[in-house]
Structures are given as C-alpha cells and as structure tokens.
Design goal:
Blueprint (H helix, E strand, L loop, with lengths): L1 H8 L2 H4 L3 H30 L7 H14 L4 H13 L15 H4 L12 H5 L3 H22 L26 H25 L1 H17 L1
Helix pairs in contact: 1-3, 3-4, 3-10, 4-9, 8-10, 9-10
Length: about 220
C-alpha cells in the first residue's frame, strides 16, 4: 500500500501544474500515506506484544524492520512499553503519560479558605494552545524516545531509549538496545543517501511529512 501510494504521488507534479491542484493533492497524499505508515508502525507494535506470530523470532524480525523504517528503536521501545502496560496509571512506576502534579505546575493546595482559580492556570491563550497541540501531535513520541518527555520523573536527567546504560534497561537488555541503535544508524545512512540522490525536498515530500503524521495518529 505504501509503495502504491508513493507511485501515485510521483504523478502529482507532472500531472498537476497549478498550485491550486498540487497543494491539495500533496495534502491528500500526506494524509493517506501517514495512515499507511501508522498501520505499519502498529504491526511493529503488535510484534512487540508477541501478537503478530506464535514465533518470537518472527515477531522480533518483523517488528525490528517495521519500527526501524519509522525511526523507532524496536527492542528498546518494546522493553519500556512492556513495563508501561505492567504499571499503567501508576504515578510512581508508569513509563509514559505520567501526568504533572500540583507541585510540577506550581499550584498550591486547595482548602476551605484558599479557592484556586484553575482557569488562571489552565486557561491558555488560543495561540499557545495551538502551539502545544501541534507540538504534542507531531513531536511528542520522538521527544519521549530521545528525552523521556512525559516519562517517569524519578529517572535521571537525559534518560532515553538509545543509551544502553539508561535507567530504562537492565544489564541483560543492553545488547538488544545496541541492536536497535544499529537499526536507527542504518536508517540514518539510508535517508542520507536518499537525500543525496533525490534531494532533501523530495525525501521530505514523499517520506518525511507522512512520517510526522505517524506521531499524530
């Protein structure tokens, strides 16, 4: 499906010469290719749960390929994702989506004599709210992998999914973290070669923008 969508996109610029036609066409391509990329990522997600095949080797092989193609360190993510499901909704042990507390937001305790104006704290301006929404939808997952954004606050600074010595992993898990890193490095080399061959703009149009949509979905 992704290859078919890409081949159709190759016809956009040659067929449509007017910006009034090319811009909607590219938007449509990004939308559908983003959906297809997301479905590929979900296949890797199911592999991480061992639900794709009865064989763990098959799951790991397919999961490693599909997630690496979409800039996700498969084994590293699989480890933290497993703990996330084991500790879901725990403020102390959850791996991701840990909500901010009153102290994090600087909100004092509320009692009978001290009523809190929550709109003062959460009623952001529309522009700021839009900025936070776009940031969340496009960059939240990569930021979680690289900087542990929204992750467990008890972990040391710079905790991430690429450091084999990270608090996310045990000593026995370090080898597979390095394998994940090797996959990401190979992907970096592949994209670099694609940029040299077809140009950065083409790579962004056909691959980069749909990849950003994966975080949104």
């Amino acid at each position: 499906m992704a290859a078919f969508c890409w081949r159709v996109a190759l016809l956009i610029d040659p067929v449509f010469t007017s910006p009034a036609a090319t811009q909607p066409s590219w938007s449509l391509y990004w939308w559908f290719q983003g959906l297809i990329f997301t479905s590929i990522w979900v296949i890797g997600h199911e592999c991480g749960h061992g639900a794709f095949s009865p064989s763990q080797r098959v799951c790991d092989f397919v999961g490693f390929i599909t997630h690496t193609l979409l800039w996700t360190p498969y084994f590293s993510w699989r480890i933290s994702h497993h703990r996330y499901h084991c500790n879901h909704a725990s403020m102390e042990r959850d791996e991701v989506y840990v909500p901010k507390t009153r102290s994090d937001l600087g909100i004092p305790e509320e009692d009978g004599s001290n009523k809190i104006d929550y709109d003062e704290y959460f009623g952001d301006t529309p522009i700021y709210t839009l900025f936070m929404l776009v940031r969340q939808q496009l960059l939240a997952f990569p930021a979680y992998l690289v900087y542990n954004v929204s992750g467990q606050k008890t972990y040391p600074a710079w905790t991430n999914h690429f450091d084999p010595n990270s608090a996310l992993f045990t000593k026995n898990q370090r080898t597979v973290v390095l394998v994940s890193n090797f996959g990401i490095l190979a992907m970096m080399a592949l994209v670099r070669q694609a940029c040299r061959t077809w140009g950065v703009a083409a790579v962004m149009k056909y691959y980069g923008v749909p990849w950003l949509c994966v975080s949104h979905w």
